[in-house]
Amino acid sequence: MRKFSFLWSVMLALPLQAGAMQPLITDDTATQGPWRHQLELSLAHERQHPGRMRELGMTYTFGLSERVDVFATAAHQRTTGTGQPLQGWTPGSLGAKWRLLEIESARTSFALKPVIRLPVSTGREQQGWGPGRVSGNLALIVSREMAWGDLHFNLACGLDRFRPGSGQPDATVRSLSVAPVWTLSERWIVAADLGLEQVRSAEGPKRTRWMEWALIHQHSPESEWALGWIRSTPLERPGVTARTLNAGWTLRF
Predict the structure, then answer these.
(1) CA 13/CA 113 separation, integer angstroms
(2) Whether residue 208 has pLDDT greater than 70
């Protein structure tokens, strides 16, 4: 069975980044606005000895109203160094984000983000590309405006559902993360992202922590480039570390 990469597992466990500022894992409460579009493209390279993973991802977001977005994601991945090279499309997803509450006096807003993850075929499930039944998660997002920028919190819970007889038990996935975002100037932004994820199944709990540093350049109000570096470590195997370099481009129209 294929060994899941950290980036792949985070994409499944956490709310995907529709509306979020690339390349952060933690999302924010921002929405696109009525009839507005956003296209995000990303290229990631992950290394976890002895394997390597390259991934090209895409997220399309459409603003239904001032407070509601809907989105779809897709990604193509190639892994090498852990046996026979594998490549193909990871499970796509469909979701929405609803900014349900804004407290102007506290400069704080709240959003809910449900995500449905599409199933893979039986053969691809056996190879480890993802769950063979429809899965999903729900995230609570909190954003607060600060004097130096913004602070974002995510709390998410989900379920991975595998086919009977696949040899993989269903798993519940919980995650907690925080991302401070510093506005250096009109065009330059620096951010950090810290999080903890727990996957619990009949095989027992597995926990992973991650830390990310990101640099974002806003070329214009409608487009931006971003670069991120992620370091993740399973708490049950502290000597095993995955490092991911992620570059992204966002276009709004």
Answers:
(1) 13
(2) yes
Question: Cα–Cα–Cα angle for 78, 4, 236, nearest 5°?
Answer: 145
- Give the number of other CB atoms < 10 A from CB of residue 54: 14
Burial call 109-124: b when 16+ CB within 10 Å, e when fewer: bbbbbebebbbbeeeb
Other CB atoms closer than 10 Å to residue 104's CB: what's the count?
Answer: 8
Q: How far apart, in whole angstroms, are the C-alpha atoms of residue 32 and residue 37?
A: 7
pLDDT in tens, 58-76: 999 999 999 999 999 999 9
CA separation for the pair 128, 122 (Å, rounded):
10
In the chain, pLDDT over 90 holds for what percent of residues? 69
Confidence of residue 20 (pLDDT cuts 50, 70, 90): low
pTM of the model: 0.90
What does each C-alpha distance from 128 to 3, 15, 36, 58, 184 come to in angstroms?
A: 7, 20, 36, 21, 42
Surface-to-core class of residue 201, CB atoms within 10 Å of its CB (0-12 exposed, 13-18 middle, 19+ buried): middle
